[in-house]
Design a protein that fits this description.
Elements lengths: L3 E9 L8 E7 L7 H11 L4 E9 L2 E7 L4 E2 L3 H14 L7 E6 L2 E7 L10 E5 L3 E6 L1 H7 L13 E5 L3 E6 L3 H5 L5 H10 L14 E6 L9 E9 L2 E5 L3 H15 L2 E8 L7 E10 L2 E8 L1 E10 L2
Parallel strand pairs: 2-3, 4-6, 11-12, 13-15
Antiparallel strand pairs: 1-2, 1-18, 3-4, 4-5, 6-7, 7-8, 8-17, 9-10, 10-11, 12-13, 13-14, 15-16, 16-17
């Protein structure tokens, strides 16, 4: 009989099945897998990320590693929430209101809104303090990314921000513009290399991604409509729901728009993966409180053969 581990597929930042961002979560408490194997499994399942639960350190603390199909990342949003859901449902003796994940970036606290009903609960992560990086002008972005000259909202700052993963926050003028965005792999690669934001030449050894936002929305209850594009394995890929990028957006809003922010963000609509993310933050006593929440919907579970 081949060696195997259990795995689960969930949709994160989803309020119904087959929406949100897909995630595979593998339980490997005996550490059967090494980094090469985890990357190979992630490439095989080919979601934006896969998560591997590596140890149970207490009844509410777990070590988790996260991979994209290109490399291991120190932190990611929807894998954190999806892993917390799986830990709560399958590994905790008593489900309480908080779970702690120990990631490569450090420990992250996740609140479980209704522990007695995980399927309808909102899971909310508190992200690390933001790092504010390079700023750009609208002209630098439109020329550098070969976008229409009037695409970017020049009244809004443009800045690279990271709470564990780096993004450039770019406000565009309206919903039509964000829906029609088209990016070239070569153009984006040249832009990132020129600004030292590509994996092997960046300070973080991570590739910076692009997070486009507009305050025009498709859903009346939403405050912002967003799209995230990443350059991965030489290709432009779009993400259905990006908790880490929305954490950077929240830090941006706190810095530029006010010391208290609550927002509902819609993402993934252009992909047919409607996603809803809830932002809740404040800037107090020179510290940022960055909370990003959403629901997790179970899809399937099974056995993964290791050898």
């Amino acid at each position: 009989m081949a060696d195997s581990i259990p795995y689960f597929i969930v949709d994160v930042f989803a309020e119904e099945r087959y929406a949100g961002n897909q995630l595979a979560v593998f339980i490997d408490l005996e550490n059967r897998l090494n980094g090469i194997q985890m990357l190979a499994i992630t490439r095989e399942i080919n979601f934006a990320e896969s998560a591997f639960i590596r140890s149970r350190e207490s009844d509410n603390t777990f070590a988790v590693r996260i991979f994209t199909p290109e490399y291991e990342v120190p932190f990611a949003g929807h894998p954190s929430l999806g892993s917390a859901y799986i830990c709560a449902k399958h590994l905790m003796t008593v489900v309480k209101g908080e779970i702690v994940l120990r990631l490569k970036e450090g420990a992250i606290n996740i609140q479980i809104g209704t522990p007695q009903n995980l399927e309808t609960s909102r899971f909310t992560m508190q992200q690390a303090q933001p790092c504010f990086g390079t700023t750009f002008t609208a002209n630098e972005i439109t020329l550098g990314l070969h976008l229409p000259l009037d695409a970017v909202d020049s009244s809004m700052p443009i800045q690279e921000i990271s709470t564990g993963l780096p993004y450039i926050i770019i406000f565009v003028k309206d919903l039509k513009t964000i829906q029609q965005l088209q990016l070239s792999e070569q153009t984006v690669l040249e832009f990132l290399i020129g600004n030292k934001m590509y994996k092997n030449i960046s300070a973080s050894a991570l590739t910076t991604s692009l997070f486009f936002v507009t305050s025009e929305t498709l859903v009346a209850d939403s405050d912002y409509h967003a799209r995230m594009f990443a350059l991965e394995n030489g290709k432009i890929v779009e993400d259905a729901a990006t908790g880490s990028a929305n954490g950077c957006l929240l830090a941006y809003l706190l810095k530029y728009s006010g010391k208290l922010q609550f927002a509902r963000v819609e993402q993934g609509f252009e992909m047919g993966r409607n996603s809803v993310l809830y932002l809740d933050g404040a800037f107090e006593k020179n510290e940022y409180r960055i909370n990003i929440g959403g629901q997790v919907v179970p899809i399937s579970e099974g056995t993964w053969f290791v050898s």
